[in-house]
User: What shape does this take?
Amino acid sequence: MLNLSSFVQRAQQLLDPTQGLNLTDSDRNPSKASLFQSQFRLPASQHPLYEITAELTVPPANATQGDKDRGRGYQYAGKLHLSEAYMCFSTTPSSFLQSASTSTSSTFTGQTHGGGPGGNGFTFPLCSIRRVERLHSQNFQFALAITTWNGIGQDAPKDKKDLREQRITIQLAGPRASCERFCDGLKKGLRAGVGNVAKLKKVVAECYSEYLLRPEDKKNASPPDAGLGMLFRYPGDPKKLRDRAKMRLWAEYLRDNGRNVTLIRQPTFHKLIRVGLPNRLRGEIWELTSGSIYLRLEHPTLYAETLAKFEGQESLAIDEIEKDLNRSLPEYPGFQSEDGIGRLRRVLTAYSWVNADVGYCQAMNIVVAALLIYMSESQAFFLLSAMCDRLVPGYYSTTMYGTLLDQKVFESLVERTMPILWEHLVKSDVQLSVVSLPWFLSLYINSMPLVFAFRVLDVFFVEGPKVLFQVGLAILRINGEGLLDATDDGAFISVLKSYFARLDESAHPKSENPKLRAVTRFQELMVVAFKEFSGITHSSIVELRLKNKDAVLNNIESFAKRTAIRNLGPDSKLLSTQELGALYDRFYTVLYERQQRDHILQQEQAKKAKSSRPKIPDAANSHDDPGIEKGRVGLGPSTSLMDYDAFREFLAGMAKWAVSDSPTTPRRDAFAEKDRSFYGSFRKADTFLSPWGSGPEPADHEFLQRLFKKWDVGSASALTLQNVVTGLARIKGKRDIMGTITYFFELHDDDGDGCVDREGILRMSEALLFLSRRGLEGTLSPSNSTLGLNGLGDGINGSQNDIAGQTINERFLGSVSAFIRRCFEYADPDHLKNQIAEGREGDRREEPGSDELANPDAFAIGDDEDDEDDLLTMDSPTGSPKAPSRTDASPSQRPPSIRFNSQSTLSNNNDTSDRRRVSRAQSEKANVALDPSNPLHITLPTFRMVVLADELLEQFFESSFPASFHINDSLGTTSAPTPTTPLTTFSNLGLGAGRVVGAALGGAPGAPAAGRGLRGVLDNIVTDGMRMAAEVRRRMEEAQRELEKNAVPGQRNDEDEDEDEEDVGFERGSAAGKTLTYGGDAERRSVRSSDRDLLAGADAEASDTNANASVSGTGRASASSESGAGGNGGSPATPGGGGAGRIVGIEFDG
Amino acid sequence: MADSANAPKPSSSVKLVLLGEAAVGKSSLVLRFVNNDFQENKEPTIGAAFLTQKCNLPTRTIKFEIWDTAGQERFASLAPMYYRNAQAALVVYDLTKPTSLVKAKHWVAELQRQASPGIVIALVGNKLDLTSDGSGSGGDADSAGDDSGDARKVTTEEAKAYAEEEGLLFFETSAKTGYNVTEVFTAIANAIPETSLKSARGAGASHAASRTEEQRVNLNGPRDPNAKEGCAC
Assistant: This one.
């Protein structure tokens, strides 16, 4: 289980933002696989499986070869490697051991002369091997004779003599066992490779060498596409370039040593590259040395498929590409033609689709245009991939961090190798990168005359990015004197400009020696670059990159942040710069960390999957992929979109209420389907790595969903930083209560018609409860006078009991229940019909009748408070409080439940039915309002009035809701385990809420009129207290009787574990479901019987107070407001109640 | 540019940076100003291009060191490298492309906050030749009111109002026809406070500043006479 512990360590390292954030393991300690891949330029699918010391013997050929070894051919000692689909040989020691870093492998990357990264040897795809024979050798060693499919692209010659089979021998040196293991692996690989021979044939057919080596009589077929140069001539004077001579040398080399994939690298190969490639072979050799041919071999049709797949689609990248098509090497005739421009367009477009993270970057057009002069579209496409992934990583990314990083590296190399010049640059305040950046970004294509730039590219593809640095340093060294005279950017640039313009001139025009005179400035440049700066190795580049990476990324990130914040638009001005900065950080931190976690979990899974598969032991090493770094802004935003889960996590870092109440139980059922599949994939890993990282698990509540939807302006199911800032700015920015109220209202106005219907009202109140359950923040006045004012309306807080014992948070619950009630009272009916009905006296007379039925249940769900109620309310003239609470889920609940079941699956809705019950009892008018057959709605002004009618609510919108988003300061709860955070819910309040109810019920009659002012008057409009009281009393008794008759325990036990409000929603859902089944018809009597059942369940629950705290809690919410109303009604001594009675009475009497 | 050899006027160099969205014509403006030339398909600038051009004022000669930057969004992070120490900036937009004005505003904001204080910024709407009021032939049709039947998408009024609000010089130009191009650079040269010039003489600095103010007002206001002069040459 070593793996596990190292994984955990790594996970910690990655999740801890303070350490190891930028320099990943793969940077510091590249895996064996990645070193192997980069040595042989193989695709990421290849891993070193077997490796063995061996000696390669290449049969003797023509005299053009290098050192001949006694006519036996050429022998190279080195290592033979086997991967899944390749067999590679290299003379340079490979050091991709577990512990190897790129610097220890400098031997093979460091030499400028000779090897190149691959050294001498070969890189054979296994499918290119035709036959392997074991030779008998004297000294009992393994000797293999390998015959390749060299020239497979040609038709079989009639004359067997024409066929020159490529045959090499390899002597394996090592213990017999390891030789045999290697051979077994090779056998397996060869067998697997057989299927790819057809693919290989197709791929090599595009190589010009196949045509070149074809016997003269068969050359009538059209040659493969060797770039636009075939149509528009290649740049430069072929005579001057000695193209013919070069071509002859190459033809000879290829004939002797194999072509394209079966080519064997011998010293001559590297020498031939150094003197410049012949035009028609240039593309193919580039493809071969960069390894992009292996990408093409892996997926030969990818280019065409990509184009076909995305045909006709548009993107930002395509727009940008279009802008530049006409201005890419415009001086080359091929790019003044539709053909050339079409090719360029297709290659750039296809690449922008396969690598959408990079898309299109200016300079790519120039590079690709250059490639297209020498190679086919498909070849250029894969070469571009190989470049972006391996040769110039990060150069063209959206932040161009690779470019900037290499500029820093270049600067430090200049400082190190040319200290005097460097000092001069610093003194004259000349920024080197101003000149050198375009060199690197466009690989000198834009800076030097094309013919010379291509010579640089020839070496670049075989030897790697260090070539760019060597050439750059050489340019500065050669121009050292001129540059020391230059004192500003302008002079500096002009020195170099004129140098580039004269690269073809003699470097020593005045020399006596004609040979020396013949040396051009460019040749001099190459010599200086590769001789004088041969010390610049791949490893030194890698080291310097590592050293500077952090600073560069930080720079980019601070720029990106600055820019992003500045460009956030007018809404962002509502927030302070500090807040915006903090928001920016929070936004990207969440995205980054999520990706990191994701990656680790995936990796762990992959590891598990691998270990379960008993495969080749050597292969078990981690394949680091660069994806580990994704998410860091400086590397180019791999994502800048926040999905719903990320949004929850984001909010949980800022707002108390967004933290889940039950963090240990991942209840995914409530999630949308996509979330589930997303998490399903790594659910197993949850045990030791929470999907939420070190932060608290975020809650999932309808309010969050609404907020997300509201902020998601483009309906993209994802938020941009802009969305988040705009969303928050509207809540937090204005500090304007009206604005916040409006915002909250709009949040619940689904269709945007300015009306929130019955369900919406209930959802609003739910949201209020959700937001307040961890307590309210901001400025809340706890004074008694406020209390009095506040309490008046609902009759809960009105009594002195409350003042003594209640916290603000508890009072808020009361405010919310009052809110519901008032909303229904002031709601407008939806239809004219209802208005008429209301207007008619007869109708109204009947309504109270139905109300009678409704009332008992209105008091309902507070069942488990019974005991407290008893104590507190015995003296209440309103009647036994026990009865009302027992009556619970009553007949009147039914109609709404039915409705919810049939119309909506939203869990939360069910909760609402309780509340609805509450309001039922309030007044006759409200009763009408509650009837589902009388749809109603509230408008913004109504909502505003209702909110402002309650001081606590008012304060909530004025300060505590906006203040609940902690942008700058960190949340206390973030570190503390969530369960310890006290929740203010009805359930948690327990006794407190009971007291509230009790007080409300009982306290009201005796309550002094003191402290009731305007609010009381307002409330008078609402309730007919006297009448209500009588009815309530009567119905309580009824309900009590019912209850006693029907006490059936255990009905709802299965739902007992649920603890928070969300669950209440679910419970209600099932409860409502039951209701539906019990009373299919809407008749009142059947309603009653079904309710009885519910009641029974509730009763059973009540006996188990702890378990179903939440259920009863919500119940209590309704009960409290209910009883509040009852209290009001029952106490004529209360001016509020009395007043209300009066006014409603007036209305009722017509 | 006129020969300044006979009168040894004080000469000083001014670092000027061009910013703006891709393909709005930054490089073309510079090319027109420096070489009085226009290329239909100008290669995109990689990183930045550097050019110089002298500008003769009655009292002094200004040598512009022009940094022409790449326009593509992702090159934006390189921009600080170029506008560092710049005394003047040309923020260019394409008046047939409203998004380019948005981008221009971003650049103005960036410069105002990050560049050297006192940097002279000119907002330039390029490609006037594509509009019906463009000065393709003579440049005397500078009535920006009528937008019918042309490619103009940004009205003169809108851009001008913004420029005034931010205290920028404002021009509409055509690099293709050359209309108003020299004027932009001349106006910038005039607006550079003498105090910020490298080789500025110590005396009369405050005097120069007030003069610059006058100039600025002039240039911002009635543009037409200037324009005609510009096109005559």
